[in-house]
Specification:
It is a lipid-anchor. With about 110 residues, the protein is of the alpha/beta class. It has a single domain, classed as P-loop containing nucleotide triphosphate hydrolases (Rossmann fold, 3-Layer(aba) Sandwich), CATH 3.40.50.300. A three-stranded parallel beta sheet has the order 1-2-3, with helices on both faces. Strand 1, helix 1 and strand 2 form a beta-alpha-beta unit. The termini are close together. The relative contact order is 0.17. The model has no long low-confidence stretch (mean pLDDT about 85).
């Protein structure tokens, strides 16, 4: 689940923790989550420092990405990270040959 907050809004950062707690409560402690700071391209309007949000994400043990849809910067990275987290969650760490033998068709909901 991507937790999005605007880097141009301190109040959006304050809401992220309540969303994170709600996701953990509903989906469980191992649910895939990434913290995503949006609007990286609006540096002059920035209210949330990289250091602040990085420390927060680190304290939650979650990956953090700063993105800019306008400049197409890091837009795919958070979603690729979520897919990796989901795959690790359902596929045990085995060799390639063993993975080919595993049943396919499991569905993951976010």
């Amino acid at each position: 689940m991507p937790l999005l907050n605007s880097l141009t809004s301190q109040s959006s950062l304050e809401e992220v923790d309540s969303f994170r707690q709600e996701i953990r409560r509903i989906k469980g402690p191992d649910s895939p989550i990434v913290v995503v700071g949006t609007k990286r391209d609006l540096a002059s309007e920035r209210e949330v420092s990289a250091k602040t949000i990085e420390s927060l994400a680190k304290s939650w043990d979650l990956p953090f990405y700063e993105t800019s849809a306008k400049h197409n910067r890091n837009v795919n990275d958070p979603f690729e990270d979520l897919v990796r987290q989901m795959r690790r969650r359902i596929l045990p760490p085995v060799g390639r040959e063993d993975r080919k033998k595993q049943k396919r068709g499991e569905c993951i909901t976010m």
